[in-house]
Amino acid sequence: MRKLIALFMLAGILFAPVFANAQEAEDTVAQEETAPVAVEPAASPTIVDDEIVEEELSFHQVVKEKFIEGDPLYMTPVLICLILGLAVALERIITLNLSTTNTKKLLIKVEDALESGGVEAAKDVTKNTKGPVASIFTQGLMRYSEGIEMVEKSIISYGSVEMGRLEKGLIWISLFISLAPMLGFMGTVIGMIGAFDSIEAAGDISPSLVAGGIKIALLTTVAGLIVAIILQLFYNYCVAKIDSLVNDMEDASITLVDILVKHKLTGK
């Protein structure tokens, strides 16, 4: 699953500029073929064409130009951080959404199964339900014969295991959030060093000498910060989703213990 998502993200980001450029090339050819021949001053069509080219400059073209201007040697590591970070983030988002369970509905089914068929029927209900909450219920029901205390200990222990599974992969997103700005700042430092080397070699301070190095420095810094901001949004969403799932697990576990105590006292 992770490999497929990573491949889709990689293909989409890398080939989107190519598709955009190809589409624009086709539109330009179509305009040239369908344009009527008219006798006009030579300067007018040139100005109109320049305006059309500027208006048709797409987002992907702008990104591609800035990527090249920022030097692919320093921009490529930042782009790799974005691709890998988004791949991990999307995999986590899909997994967490699939792990969401309607706990109220599940508790009603478990209670009805206990009343009608006992613990074994309740186990069948939880085993046939996906999600960490159902898995915790299954572990607790398996220890029902050993007493309510063992049920509580089993729920707490297995709840920690499920929480660890939910948090799996977040460390990689956090890594790319920290790494992208660092790579951007490294490009900044290297660009500034190149600018001062040019000044030293020329023996004079000229805007044309330092402009290239400073431009690389600024572009790499901006790229690193943009990647970090994007990944931070996905990271915060994943953390919020995990907190919601953990709260559901804790509330549902307490309710399950109460249901089992009631079932044991009634002797049904």
Biggest β-sheet, characterized? none
Helix content: over 70%
Helix run count: 9
Give the oligomeric state of the chains in this entry, treating copies of one chain as homo and distinct chains as hetero.
Answer: single chain
Give the amount of beta strand, in percent: under 5%
Quick check: average pLDDT? Answer: 76
What is the strand tally?
0
Distance between the termini: 44 Å
Uncertain runs are: 14-54
Secondary-structure class: mainly alpha
How would you describe this structure to a colleague?
By secondary structure, this protein is mainly α. The protein has nine helices and no strands. The chain folds into two domains: 1-69, no CATH class; 73-268, no CATH class. The protein has helices spanning 2-34, 43-55, 59-69, 72-98, 103-127, 132-142, 148-166, 170-202, 207-266. The longest helix is centred in the C-terminal third of the chain and has 60 residues, at 207-266. It is rod-shaped, with a radius of gyration of 30 Å. The two termini are 44 Å apart. The model is unreliable at 14-54 (pLDDT under 50).
Give the gist of this structure:
The chain has helices spanning 2-34, 43-55, 59-69, 72-98, 103-127, 132-142, 148-166, 170-202, 207-266. By secondary structure, the protein is mainly alpha-helical.
